[in-house]
Design goal:
about 180 residues; mainly beta; two-stranded antiparallel ribbon; about 50% strand
Length: about 180
């Protein structure tokens, strides 16, 4: 902190003392968020989700579960292989469209492997005469792929409400004779 004289036309001498603070005061981040370290070009830094129940899961990405031996029945691989997977969120939506019948336009994607490397794996069994070779995939990258997610509206538990009464509309199925 420092004290400096500043011009002020409201006082007869036209100067007053003013305290000058060089401290940066940043607003608090919302609950579940924490501030990243400030940089020279950004005073306060960005608020980002913290680990916990309010954390936004990562977009679809490759996950590693460690190098392990492969086991099939009583047989084991003669070396370890990196076990991988894909996980995280992908976008999905349902949009109502106009028309006589209730129609929803569904768009769905799921997190799945985009590139896979397959390894020849030699399996060693207790009975050496039954040793064999197999393949083991290691996921190199993941992405969100489009999938079919539309359902027949009558089968997915959707409740329709009448605009005029606000009451649920009951749809009865006709029996075939």
């Amino acid at each position: 902190m420092s004290c400096e004289a500043v011009s002020n036309p409201c006082y007869p001498t036209n100067t007053t003392a003013q305290i000058k603070s060089n401290s940066i005061i940043c607003p608090a981040c919302p609950e579940g968020y924490a501030r990243l370290n400030a940089t020279s070009d950004v005073c306060c830094g960005e608020c980002v989700p913290v680990i916990g129940p309010t954390t936004i899961p990562p977009k679809c990405e490759r996950q590693e579960f460690g190098a392990k031996q492969i086991k099939i029945g009583a047989c084991y691989s003669n070396q370890t292989y990196l076990h991988t997977g894909c996980g995280g969120y992908c976008d999905s939506s349902a949009t109502a469209t106009h028309g006589v019948s209730l129609t929803l336009d569904h768009k769905c994607t799921c997190c799945s492997a985009a590139k896979v490397t397959r390894f020849n794996v030699y399996m060693v069994c207790p009975d050496k005469s039954k040793n064999f070779e197999t393949m083991f995939p290691v996921i190199d990258s993941c992405t969100c792929h489009s999938i079919s997610c539309s359902k027949d509206i009558t089968d997915n538990g959707l409740v329709e409400v009448s605009e005029s009464s606000g009451e649920a509309v009951l749809k009865r199925r006709r029996r075939r004779r």
